[in-house]
Specification:
The chain has 152 residues and is α+β, with helices and mostly antiparallel strands. It has helices at residues 16-42, 46-71, 125-128, 133-143; strands at 10-13, 74-78, 81-86, 89-93, 98-104, 107-112, 117-120. It has four helices and seven strands, in the order E-H-H-E-E-E-E-E-E-H-H. The longest helix has 27 residues, at 16-42.
Length: 152
């Protein structure tokens, strides 16, 4: 999508508690690692380096996990089409390829004319921990699709 051309692109990301956890859990582990390394600086020994190293590894692991599963996930809708960035891949669809849209447990489902579907995890109730009806209504408004298409 052309972000420089002035075309409006609507973007949705995983929200709610999951997004807060995606930042908070790695931050807490990182601060704990920092405190551990500060303790190691004041008295360098294997006993102080071991927990600091463990917390550093956990902080890095948590940060990568939450970035991969929650923070990088997004749905973009613009004049050029739909881009769904999911944990295991990025899907690009032209607006003409979408026959119908509905909200499933794993996110907004874009049904293709050939019977396949693409799911946008960014609107997943499971990821956000709350109902996504309001955000799904925003998506339908952007796509200019009537609400009756979600029943198809």
């Amino acid at each position: 999508m052309d972000y420089q051309g002035g075309d409006s692109v609507s973007v949705w990301r995983v929200g709610g508690v999951a997004r807060v956890a995606g930042y908070a859990i790695p931050a807490v582990a990182g601060v704990t690692a920092l405190v551990g390394w500060a303790g190691w600086v004041s008295s360098p020994s294997v006993e102080t380096a071991r927990p600091a190293g463990l917390w550093t590894g956990l902080a890095i692991g948590f940060a990568l996990f939450f970035w991969w599963m929650i923070l990088r996930v997004r749905l973009e809708v613009g004049p050029d089409g739909i881009v769904a960035v999911n944990p295991w891949g990025t899907h690009r669809l032209g607006l003409g390829e979408v026959a119908s849209v509905r909200l499933g447990s794993w996110g907004a489902e874009f049904h293709h004319g050939d019977g396949f579907k693409t799911t946008a995890y960014a609107l997943s109730e499971l990821a956000a921990g709350t109902s996504q009806d309001r955000r799904f209504a925003e998506l339908l408004a952007v796509l200019e699709v009537g609400p009756d298409s979600s029943a198809r």
